[in-house]
Hints:
Largest sheet: 4 strands, parallel
Structural class: alpha/beta
Strand order of the largest sheet: 2-1-3-4
Number of strands: 8
CATH class of the domain at 27-162: Alpha Beta
Number of helices: 13
Strand content: 5-15%
Amino acid sequence: xxxxxxxxxxxxxxxxxxxxxxxxxxxxxxxxxxxxxxxxxxxxxxxxxxxxxxxxxxxxxxxxxxxxxxxxxxxxxxxxxxxxxxxxxxxxxxxxxxxxxxxxxxxxxxxxxxxxxxxxxxxxxxxxxxxxxxxxxxxxxxxxxxxxxxxxxxxxxxxxxxxxxxxxxxxxxxxxxxxxxxxxxxxxxxxxxxxxxxxxxxxxxxxxxxxxxxxxxxxxxxxxxxxxxxxxxxxxxxxxxxxxxxxxxxxxxxxxxxxxxxxxxxxxxxxxxxxxxxxxxxxxxxxxxxxxxxxxxxxxxxxxxxxxxxxxxxxxxxxxxxxxxxxxxxxxxxxxxxxxxxxxxxxxxxxxxxxxxxxxxxxx
Length: 364
């Protein structure tokens, strides 16, 4: 297939957390708020004069210093982020919105704060506690935390407008992004798709790591380009697979899978599009913030949620996507020392194979 117009530019944007579009937005007076987890509602970080940057540590090599602080039995992703922070790689940030999702990431945020990895006057690190199940009272508790520990902090530090009108505007822009990414992603359902899993992985990551207002026009143009793109005469892959599991922001994993002859047709992992690129439905007669918070809680597929209904939801979701995207098999992956997926991956991969009759490969 013909190369996509912006593919090289998109790949270059992913070479640094402080990419050219981030610099451009900050030059225009906007504030960069870093985050790592789906539990932190992305749309709330894109309110008014702020924009979200999903944190990565591309081109990491040694993580010896962060290992000294965190031990070598914590996940390499959290250690890589801390290492990059110690190196000065997050000096550009105006704040970090953290969540109490796992102990490794908690220690990462804690050390970033204690070691003062950013010397900006109004820089902040904030934390929100995440529940293990969804009930009316946990939704209420999360909503209160997002108001007091996030929106109020943005207002205090950066004079951010956190009114309902500002939230609705952020939701509107977020939904535009989601519509584009969903339309592109759905093209992977075709027998001979006009896009590869690797290309979609690139597009998905830039949608998380760049200011929405600046990356959206390029993604909209890419959508039209893909609609008119002529695929090869016959499918290039030998098998269609879904990739499921913990955090994946390394493009080389998807590249490796596809170079082996298997196309990644759906991405149900952290930093993927499922969840993350679903539209948020808002009833203007109800509390806006509560609806946003509840959307993220109910659509989350994180293994931190340990209630029976959430465990079953994760299995049903994978089965649904595998059928919808006409997958031939499923790959369950887990980052080394990821506490929650160390439990989820072995059991879920067994059940998807034995009870749902899917061919499953489980990798650590």
